[in-house]
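User: I'm putting together notes for a lab meeting next week and I want to include a structural view of one of the chains we've been expressing. I don't have a solved structure, so I'd like a prediction I can at least talk through. The sequence is below, exactly as it appears in our construct file.
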Amino acid sequence: MYLSLVGWMLVSCSQENVAPGDGTQKIGKISETANATATQDGNRAMGNPSSAGTSYSNYLIDKAQYSMSYNSYRGTPNWVSWHLSSAWLGSTPRQDDFRADNSLPSNFYRVTPSDYTGSGFDRGHNCPSADRTLTVTDNSATFLMSNMIPQAPTNNQQTWANLENYCRKLVSEGNELYVIMGSYGTGGTGSAGYKTTLAGGKVTVPNRIWKVIVVLPVGTSDVSRVTSSTRVIAVDTPNSTSISTSWGTYRTTVDAIESKTGYNILSNVSSTVQSVIESKVDSGPTS
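Assistant: Thanks for the context. Below is the predicted structure for the 287-residue chain, given as structure tokens.
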């Protein structure tokens, strides 16, 4: 019994907590002995797609859980970038504490949950709640309204949910992902019809919603491990209730999204590698 107790204590003590990663560098420790190399890495490791800084229309925000370019004129992010590995995942339940982001500059309009009420559009997460379940703090951060866009219910609850679930499946198979999501254009069709803005013009309804996913086996020095054979999934969907529930229908190239947005989405990846992986349409599994 004594030896069994000592063995149990050693196993228990081998697990370490992980501190949240910031927007620019790799930090954190092993999350669990079952996946000894999974860490929380920098959310902007793949780059700063719009060269976001201090502009009101392209304002850089680095939170522990994700990074973004925020557009105060649209009341939504231009893009949100985050790292996803098993080190970010745990058993924390969904907090559902939608709220204004009071960390935004005081002269920005701070979108509230009620700005979406009765609009026919969901408060659609960019960085998903289920991608940040290690701690209550991590999960709660995904419910800030700065992380939301007005998203058509079918798009959010079916098409996009299926893609998010597939991303977490890839993680369960031993991968880590870098995900960049954004939106562009004006005007979408929700359950209450077509709208261009909400909240008296303070929140713009996007016309298109896109996502780029870089898939890597768990490891270190992630940017340098992106090669011409790395799987990159690019998806561009209409913001509409009349949409296929199969996200694979909307696969495109990173180049095509960049031409629509003007961004350099994987700006930290070597230009030689970018020229190859950004011109491909993914043909891998979708579930």
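A couple of points you could mention at the meeting. Residues 153-172 form the longest helix (20 residues). The helical segments are 2-13, 136-141, 153-172, 254-261, 271-277.

User: Perfect, that's what I needed.
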